[in-house]
Every structure is written in structure tokens, then in C-alpha cells.
Write a structure and sequence with these properties.
single chain; Phosphorylase Kinase, domain 1; Transferase(Phosphotransferase), domain 1; Serine Threonine Protein Phosphatase 5, Tetratricopeptide repeat; 3 domains; 6-stranded antiparallel sheet; 3-stranded antiparallel sheet; 16 helices; 13 strands
């Protein structure tokens, strides 16, 4: 057996693990600290490549960007040689031992929903950290997700990441260069569009769809077909092939797969909040299924003390004491939903309001009014969660219903009109937003004693729309 090659008089290269377009990854042994590590080397023939300087610069930036990331879901950088004075440029990282998600999919096909949700929570936690330090991965795919032998999940290969911010290089690749894995690329990556954290969330949606449906979202024969599918073709709802999937989880995946970035959830944190609702309330510290790697269930600290249901005591209003038990229960749940909303726990509040909507779809004026209030509040939760298009659709329906039996200057109608106008602006439908907000402004000013704060908010929104730069979207 040949002796292992030793680089920098410290790292013994023992086994080649992977090779990509610009580097080799080796299992190595750190002779100084006595531990196994992973070493990523620049390929030997890059020095003769016509664009060798660009490869070197990209590798140096990969090392520096990855070194900024300090999260249990991202392999840690231990060491690096970047100035060319050692045997070769290389990076030393934590050695991740386990199985790639690609291998799991190849062997198992589709997986149980709770397993997919748990894995997505791990990935989202790593993405949340990366996005917080202004790093966008840009190549989330099953081959870059590793499940370790102890049930943790690691997001690998920040080699084509984009670093954002004044102190970071804006790109690790050339402008206008299409970079990524076409099966998992967001629409904006195909046309060199604006890359945002939502780009990573789109890829996560593709991975979730594949895990649950047992097949890729789009599987065209070449990059042109894949580009057309990602940019133009509506994604198939996962419940067409997996009827056991919770409709709310299907809705989340479709939101992640929205063609326009601003229609997707606006952060990994919001996706985490949504996914938590799909874990069992009483779960062990791990998930184990036949033929699948065991996953640890991520601990989720919840800030603040527990919410308490409002108690009905002997000092309550006499009429309330004689209400039916079911009605009192609904009042309690309405109060809890509102408390969740005010505490900023929007995903939990959304679930609470949606459950009440289903219960309140009963005959009777009071039940109908409460149901409508809950639907409006649910839409407000979606605004906070970044689901602007969905919230707009819901509120436009509510506005149509309200207009049948309430005046345009009714307080509730005015509030919904404001939300609709602002959401039209947020999804770049500026002409419609200007019409809606302009009409609202006239009605507000025409009322006796208009709310100055509300009038001012509408005026500022209108000024912002009219001052937008020429050539902006006007969908």
C-alpha cells in the first residue's frame, strides 16, 4: 500500500472522496492534532487553464466566505493555504461522515412527510445562519446535503456562494454567468437576475417536492428544457402523487416554488415557523424509519413564557357566563390567536386563525362575522410571513364580500382596502396600487374627522409609487 502524500508537512492524504470542476476533496489525517479532516485541493491542471487566475480567486473567496459561517449545520473550516507558498492551495475542513441526501433519494425514492420536514428544518437552520451573515448558497441540492452518522444534517459546498454587503465581494462568479445545478435552480438564476435568499428557498422547495413526490420537479433532457420549465411551467402540487401530504405543507412548497422571488416566503426563519407546525407535538429526539438514515429532531427554543387561556371567572359579564360552552371556547381561541399574532408568532397564529375559520363556517350572522375577521387576520399573518401574493388574493376576496353589505368608508372596509393597495404595490402592480390607494385617499379625506395617521400612510405610499424609477415593473 503506497505511503499517503503529506502536504504542508502536516496533512496526510489518505482517500479521495470527491472531485468537482475546480477541486478534489480528500479524507486526510492531521498529524499535528491527531484527527481525521477533509482537505479540498485546487486541481493540478488549473495552473495551465486559460482562466486559472479566476479559479484561484474563486477558491480563495470560497475559503473566506465559508470561514465566516459558524453553525452546526455547516462544516467548519480549520485551516487554509491561499498564498501559493505551500505545496498547493488547499482548505482543511471538518470531515463529515454519513450519507448524502442524493444517495437516500436514489435508494428510497419518496420519504415520509415528517422525515422530509425534519430534514428541511435542519437545512433551513443552516440557511438562516448563512443569510444572516449575507451569504447565499446558490446550489442547494441533494448532493450538497449530508446526513451524518449521528443524525445531524450538514449543508456542503459554498463554492459558488454569493456574498452580499459592503465589506464582501459581491460575486464569486462572473457577472451574467449561469451557475448552479439546473434541476434545482431558481428562475432568476437562468437569466442572471437578482439573487436573494429566496433563491436558496426555491431550491429547498424543489428538494422538498422531490423528497415527497419521489421524482424531480422538472426533468427535461437538456438545460434549455429545464430553464423553460423553471421559468414558465407551473409546478405540480405534490398531493397529486402523495395524497397523504398535509395540504398546508403542499401550500408551503408551492409558495417556495413561486416563479417570482418576492412571492416566496421572505426568509428561512419564516419557513422554519411553517415547518414546525408539521412536526408531531409529542416527538422523541430522533426520527427513525426503515431504510432511511436516522434524523435528530432539531431543538426549537420558544422565547417568552407559555400563553395562558383567558379564564372565565365569576366577575365576567353575566351574559358571557350563560353563553354555550362551545361559544366560550371559540372566544378563548380567538383571544389566543390574537395573542400569538401580537407576540409575532405568525405561523402559529395563522394555524389558529385557519382552524377557527373552518369551525366558524356555520349559519348565523355572528359566526359569519367572526369567520371573516379570522380570514382577514390570517391574511395579515401571511403578509408578515412574506406570502404577499397569497395574502393579496385572500384580501381581494374579502373586500368583494365586504362590499356587498358595507359602505366603502366602513372602518373594516377601509382597513382591507389599505392592505390591498399596499400589497399591490409590494408585488409590483403599481398602476393598480395607485388606483386603489388613490380612491382610498379620496374617501379618507372626504370623511368627517379622518384618521391623520392613516391618511398620511396612504399619501406616503402614493408618493412612493409615483416617484419610482422609470422602467420599473408594472405588472
Amino acid at each position: 500500500m503506497p505511503e499517503p502524500r503529506i502536504i504542508a508537512k502536516r496533512y496526510a492524504l489518505r482517500e479521495s472522496l470527491d472531485e468537482g470542476g475546480m477541486g478534489q476533496v480528500w479524507r486526510a489525517y492531521d498529524l499535528l492534532l491527531g484527527r481525521d479532516v477533509a482537505v479540498k485541493l485546487i486541481l493540478d491542471d488549473l495552473a495551465a487553464h486559460h482562466d486559472a487566475a479566476a479559479f484561484v480567486e474563486r477558491f480563495q473567496r470560497e475559503v473566506r466566505v465559508t470561514a465566516q459561517l459558524h453553525h452546526s449545520g455547516i462544516p467548519q473550516v480549520y485551516d487554509a493555504f491561499l498564498d501559493g507558498t505551500a505545496d498547493r492551495m488547499f482548505m482543511v475542513m471538518e470531515l463529515v461522515q454519513g450519507v448524502s441526501l442524493k444517495r437516500v433519494i436514489d435508494v428510497s425514492g419518496s420519504v415520509p412527510s415528517v422525515w422530509a420536514v425534519c430534514l428541511a428544518l435542519h437545512v433551513c437552520a443552516a440557511l438562516h445562519h448563512a443569510h444572516e451573515v449575507h451569504v447565499i448558497h446558490r446550489d442547494i441540492k441533494p448532493a450538497n446535503i449530508m446526513i451524518t452518522v449521528d443524525g445531524a444534517v450538514k449543508v456542503l459546498d459554498f463554492g459558488i456562494a454569493m456574498a452580499l454587503g459592503a465589506d464582501a465581494p459581491t460575486r464569486l462568479t462572473k457577472p451574467q454567468q449561469i451557475i448552479g445545478s439546473p434541476h434545482y435552480m431558481a428562475p432568476e438564476q437562468f437569466d442572471a437576475g437578482h439573487i436573494t435568499p429566496q433563491t436558496d428557498l426555491y431550491a429547498l422547495g424543489v428538494v422538498l417536492h422531490e423528497l415527497l413526490a419521489g421524482e424531480r420537479l422538472f426533468d427535461g433532457g437538456n438545460i434549455v428544457n429545464l430553464m423553460c420549465a423553471h421559468v414558465l411551467q407551473p409546478p405540480a402540487p405534490v398531493r397529486r402523487t402523495r395524497g397523504d401530504v398535509d395540504p398546508r405543507l403542499e401550500r408551503l412548497i408551492l409558495d417556495l416554488l413561486a416563479k417570482r422571488a418576492y412571492e416566496r416566503p421572505n426568509s428561512a426563519r419564516h419557513v422554519i415557523d411553517e415547518l414546525l407546525g408539521h412536526l408531531p407535538h409529542q416527538h422523541p429526539g430522533y426520527l427513525s424509519f426503515p431504510d432511511l438514515p436516522t434524523l435528530t429532531v432539531p431543538p426549537v427554543p420558544i422565547p417568552g413564557g407559555p400563553l395562558r387561556l383567558p379564564a372565565v371567572t365569576s366577575t365576567a359579564d353575566p351574559q358571557q357566563r350563560h353563553m354555550p360552552v362551545g361559544a366560550v371556547g371559540r372566544a378563548d381561541r380567538l383571544a389566543v390567536a390574537q395573542a400569538l399574532f401580537e407576540a409575532g408568532k405568525l405561523s402559529s397564529a395563522l394555524s389558529a386563525y385557519e382552524a377557527l375559520v373552518a369551525e366558524l363556517g356555520l349559519p348565523g350572522t355572528q359566526a359569519a362575522d367572526d369567520a371573516q375577521t379570522c380570514r382577514i387576520q390570517a391574511a395579515r399573518c401571511r403578509i408578515g410571513l412574506g406570502q404577499h401574493q397569497r395574502a393579496l388574493d385572500d384580501l381581494q376576496r374579502e373586500l368583494a364580500l365586504l362590499s356587498r353589505h358595507r359602505a366603502p368608508t366602513d372602518t373594516v372596509v377601509l382597513e382591507v382596502r389599505l392592505y390591498v393597495g399596499l400589497l399591490l404595490r409590494d408585488v409590483h402592480r403599481f398602476a393598480e396600487a395607485a388606483r386603489e390607494l388613490g380612491s382610498l385617499y379620496k374617501d379618507l379625506v372626504g370623511r368627517n374627522g379622518p384618521d391623520p395617521a392613516l391618511v398620511g400612510q396612504v399619501r406616503e405610499a402614493l408618493i412612493g409609487i409615483r416617484r419610482r424609477p422609470p422602467g420599473g415593473h408594472s405588472l
